[in-house]
Amino acid sequence: MVDLDSLAEKRATALKQEVQAWRDVLWGREFQALTHSMSDGEIENLLMLCLTVVELKAVIRYAHLKNAGATESVLDVLQRAAESAGLNMRAWIESLVIH
To answer: 3: helix, coil or strand?
Structure first.
């Protein structure tokens, strides 16, 4: 099982952001539901794609709307969405926040 507190601290520190804000999202019901069947590596990859808590929340919201994780991996759903928009994953995640 992935250590969510450690991941929150690592991500917040790397981005010079508030640790508690990352912890709140990672321990939140939505994130837990989304990642319950993901591997530790997949969870870490998902977090590395997001540069802010706002971006992570937007990704979680999108993934839930698309029912990601039900029949295919969350990261595959996100990658397909980015490709459909003609964007790389970072640009696509940024676009979720802008809109």
So the answer is: coil
